TrEMBL record:
The keyword Transcription does not apply. InterPro entries: AcTrfase_RimI/Ard1, Acyl_CoA_acyltransferase, Ard1-like, GNAT_dom. PROSITE patterns: GNAT. Pfam families: Acetyltransf_1 (PF00583). Keywords: Acyltransferase, Transferase. One of its GO terms (cellular component) is NatA complex. Residues 51-197 form the N-acetyltransferase domain. GO terms for molecular function: protein-N-terminal amino-acid acetyltransferase activity. This is Ribosomal-protein-alanine N-acetyltransferase.
Length: 200
């Protein structure tokens, strides 16, 4: 039931995005509100990485990063990243770099409501457990405060216990289940929510 509904809603969303045209003014509007030029963040290794907002033309780099993180099988098609970065003025993509190499990213979407929804978090295998995902989430919380959002939401595979523990440490709580959300495996998704009043 839910999986069929999800497919219909995804098609409607992509049709809506297809109909959008994001000119330079639309593109810069959200970036001006965030006023983020990038910053260095410490890793657990004692070294530093650099975080910044992704550029429109970097959709291919983000796709390749996700491919590398998922053994060549990206959950998203390259076209989906293109649409998110070039046609949807409500998306926020944060890239993390180390020695000039893109090692992680976070994708999120603003809504008309009071939440900011995380669509992707991806870290290259060799850079996991260094605090990359935590740093990306902390930065997104700061963006959510700037945008006057009250919650950050996400879905995670029920089997991804490591990610669930990370989100719980960061202050996310389980708020629901979406049966058979992930296809074709028909795996349930755990819905999780971070309330902005919670301290990281």
């Amino acid at each position: 039931m839910w999986s069929a509904f999800k497919i219909v809603m995804q098609k409607l969303m992509h049709q809506m995005i297809d109909g959008m045209y994001m000119d330079e003014e639309d593109y810069q509007l959200l970036r001006r509100r965030l006023a983020f030029t990038g910053r260095l963040v410490p890793l657990y290794s004692g070294e530093e990485a650099f975080m910044r907002l992704a550029k429109r033309e970097e959709y291919g780099d983000i796709f390749r990063l996700e491919q590398l993180a998922y053994d060549g099988k990206s959950p998203w098609h390259k076209e989906m990243f293109y649409k998110d970065l070039n046609r949807n003025p409500r998306t926020i993509y944060i890239i993390m770099e180390y020695n000039g190499e893109k090692i992680a990213f976070l994708g999120a979407r603003t809504t008309d409501g009071y939440d900011l929804h995380i669509s992707n978090i991806c870290v290259l295998p060799q850079y996991r457990c260094l605090g990359c995902a935590s740093a990306l989430i902390v930065q997104l919380v700061q963006f959510a405060e700037i945008l006057a959002k009250k919650e950050i939401t996400l879905e995670v595979r029920q089997s991804n216990s490591k990610a669930i523990r990370l989100y719980q440490r960061m202050g996310f709580i389980k708020t629901g289940i979406k049966p058979e959300y992930y296809q074709p495996e028909k795996e349930d998704a755990i819905e999780m929510t971070f309330e902005l009043q919670r301290a990281l």
